[in-house]
Amino acid sequence: MHVVKCPDCMKEYEEHKKKWKYGRFDVEAYSCECGTDLREYKMDGKHSFALKKSKHDNRWKKT
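Request: output the structure for the sequence above.
Response:
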């Protein structure tokens, strides 16, 4: 089981909200109750990087 933590409030999530392919990456999107959106990018089933956007800053940032 894969668990993702919100980088702002540290709440854990097991289920993604949405999943899609982006080039060679598999992307999983999560939305936290604190207002942070998180996108995890994986290649070959392994974590490559993540992007976050919080309610305080509307730009996507690499985490």
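The two ends are 21 Å apart (CA to CA).
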